[in-house]
Amino acid sequence: MQNLLLKLTLVFAAFLFALGFSANVFSTEKNIAKDTSKPINVKVFIGAMFEIGNNSGDKAGEFQFWFERYFANSKPITVKGAANSVYCNQNGVCGSVLGMGKVASSSSMQAIILNKQFDVSKAYFLISGVAGTPPSKGTIADVSWGSWLIDYDLGHRWHPSEGEPDAPTFTPRKGYESIRRYQLNAHLLNWALHISDDVKLTDSESARQYRQRYPQTAARRKPKVGYGTHMTGDTFFHGPGLSSEAQYMAELYGADDYVITEMEAAAIAQVLDRTLGINRMMSLRGAVNFDQGHPNERTLDHLDPAPGETAGGFEETLINISAVGAKVVDHIVENWHVWQHDVPPLP
């Protein structure tokens, strides 16, 4: 009897062991399946800064035309630390609204880059949005590719009355040499200009009339695709004095002429530089305002224009940005077998 009980006990113990082993194997297999789920291979990431309302169907902000072109059938992907959801299509194009200003945009970009849902090791980054331009260099509805990115805020400034008469009121702060300016990949820039050179830009009657308030030749012309230094500042600097200071900074840093004032690109470049490098980064901006008033307008009046005194052309500029940028995005995706390795030689 005792032998029978002993045998039954051993059989039951073996059964429990086998059951536990099977459960552990099943659990391990579940964990393995969860941990080895494949991330999305991102070919091009499009970063906008703000959206006015919905991503589609209302007044467009910076993301809406991108969303309607690439992500209308995509589901939102939540990313911890990012300001908004990320959208990806089946062709490896992803995009998101990163937030306005240096902190919001760069923190969102870092959260997305470090998130394991995405493989961005070979991705190209297209940072796009609206901006201002000096009337001596650009006009409303212009589209500009960035050649250099400069952080407008990193340095020392003082009141003009406390310095030398008519001298610049800015000097760079020592220790910021590696993060105050970034030269983007000139080879990639040439590709972007080559691909988008023949895009027909949209214009508006209100913008055409508004341009005539300015005497500068560049301000009065039709919009075009160009390139130059994009000046990043959380400070919404305005007026001919600060515009001249921005140009002074571009010359001081050995960069191209200042043509665009915006609020995010240099900060995003710092995130990319620390993680993936900036070899595959592009900055694309459309001008929706001049960085100063016309000769008969005070700077403060231009900053807060009366009804009917705005430049117009906002939606047209957004259309131009997406039309120009999409040519490059589509070219990269369609020729991914070449572009995934590196920026190819120009034809």
Provide the fold topology.
Elements: H1 2-35, E1 40-41, E2 44-48, H2 64-71, E3 86-88, E4 93-97, H3 102-114, E5 118-119, E6 124-133, E7 143-151, E8 156-157, E9 170-171, E10 181-183, H4 186-196, H5 205-211, H6 217-220, E11 225-232, H7 240-252, E12 258-262, H8 265-275, E13 281-290, H9 299-303, H10 314-334, H11 336-339
Parallel strand pairs: 1-5, 2-4, 2-6, 6-13, 7-11, 11-12
Antiparallel strand pairs: 3-4, 7-10, 7-13, 8-9
Let me know the average pLDDT.
Answer: 90
Give the tally of structural domains: 2
Shape: globular
Count of β-strands: 13
Helix-strand sequence: HEEHEEHEEEEEEHHHEHEHEHHH
The CATH architecture term of the largest domain is 3-Layer(aba) Sandwich
CATH superfamily descriptor of the largest domain: Nucleoside phosphorylase domain
CATH T-level fold name of the largest domain: Rossmann fold
Number of helices: 11
- Quickly give the structural class: alpha/beta
Portion of residues in beta strands equals: 15-25%
Quaternary: single chain
Largest sheet composition: 9 strands, mixed
Provide the low-confidence segments as ranges. Answer: 4-36
In the CATH scheme, the class of the largest domain would be: Alpha Beta
**What would you report as the Rg, rounded to the nearest angstrom?**
26 Å
Helix content: 25-40%
- Terminal residue distance: 91 Å
